[in-house]
Structure formats: C-alpha cells, structure tokens
Write the structure tokens for this entry.
Amino acid sequence: MERTGEGERRKVAVLGATGQLGARVVTQLRQRGVDVVEVSRGQGTDVYSGQGLDAAFDGVSTVVDCLNLETLSRRRAVDFFTTAARNVVAAAQRTGVFRIVCVTIINARDPEVHRWMGYYAGKAAQERTYRAGAVPVMFVASAQWYELAETLLSQMRIGPLSAVPGMRSRPLAADEAAAFVVDRVLEAGGTATSDDAVIAGPEVRDLAELARAIDQRRGGRRKVVRVPLTVTALGNGGLLPRGDFTTAPTRFEDWLRGTS
C-alpha cells in the first residue's frame, strides 16, 4: 500500500460515494489497493445532519468530498453545502483526519460565475466553509463533464423539448476527472495547497451542442433548444480554466462513440 506523510495510515472516506463522480473515485481507489469507506445515506451516514460521520471517519487519513445535490435553488444549495462542510470539518477534527480533498468546479468561487447558477453558489459557499476550517484542504477543480450534457437533457423538459443552456466549457469524461482526483489523493506528501489542482478537457465546447449530439446518438427523440447565455459568465468564457491546468485527453466524439 502506498505511503505518504501520513505514514502507514491509508484509509480514505469518500463522501457522495454512490454519485456520478464518487462511485468512480471509490472504484479507482480500490483498484489501487486503498481501503475505502463509502459515505452516503444508503450506508447510514447523513452529512447534512452529521449523523454517523464520526464512525465513518474512524481511522481515516483523507476525506474526499464528492457530494452533489440536484437543485437549481441557490438557497437550498448554499444551505446544504455549507452545513455539510461544517459537519465534515468538525468530525474530521474529532477523529484526527489528516486532510480533506474537495472536488469543486472551475471558477465556481467567482461571483460573476455563481451569480447565474444556484448550484455554483452552493459550491462557492462550500469552498469558503472548508477554507475557514481547521483541517487542511486541497481543492480539485474540474470542468464540466460530458455526462453533464446528458443530465441537462432531462433537467428542463417541456413535452418533447429540452432547453439546454449554451454554456462554454472545456468538458471532459467523468472517468478522467475521477482518475485525476485519485491521483491527488494518493500523491506522495499531498497536503493542502494555496492553488487548486485543475483539470479540463481538450477542447472548448458548447454544452447545448453536446446535449444535441447525445440525443442524436440515442435516436433523436427530443428537440434540443439551445438557451443562449452570451451575456453571462456561463456563456462567455467564465467557465474556462485560468492559468495552469491538466488537460484530459479524450475528445467528446471519442467519448460518445464509447457510450452505449
């Protein structure tokens, strides 16, 4: 089993372990020989109430936060992510967790970005809460995943129509995002840093166009209406990485050909 500054203690708790990213992180950690604790309500742990966190973190060296909340409500997202992060930090302190690795969204903390989307405002609040806590934290900032374009097809539906926002991003496959997160968890001597570890895809793409291509791959059952966002940061480059970042290799068309 790999060693870090944490010595022989190598046990990782994954929050949101049954989610789209969390399940992939769990699988890849186990493939690398790591003892993983799956933290989810299905496993009897509620991060929002804090119930079960101390037991879940017993003997854990690193907590990986892959929590997700399906909501467009700013109030609900901010409340959930703030409360959950506060509970996680408190439990981590009580149980001696070395550090927290939090998966976030590129530029979510930028007010010009999160003002347009409640979920991103929640992620910004999550980051603030973790930064104010006493446990060292590393943020892994990812661009949107190709799988998000598929999710957007079902979020805003009216009969046969799907309204999908024209968000410009450098999207990537969720599998590659998960691998990047796992690399950060396992890197030797990994600690909190002042800069995010950032990953994005190989090309700038429009998520509405990707959603349309996914629908066509399925047989074109829906009419995808692109909602222009050019007057907002979501549509005019605010979601693109700034500064250094790791580029995931898989292009969208190659990913799409590999899907069923």
Observations:
- The longest strand covers residues 99-105.
- Residues 74-95 form the longest helix (22 residues).
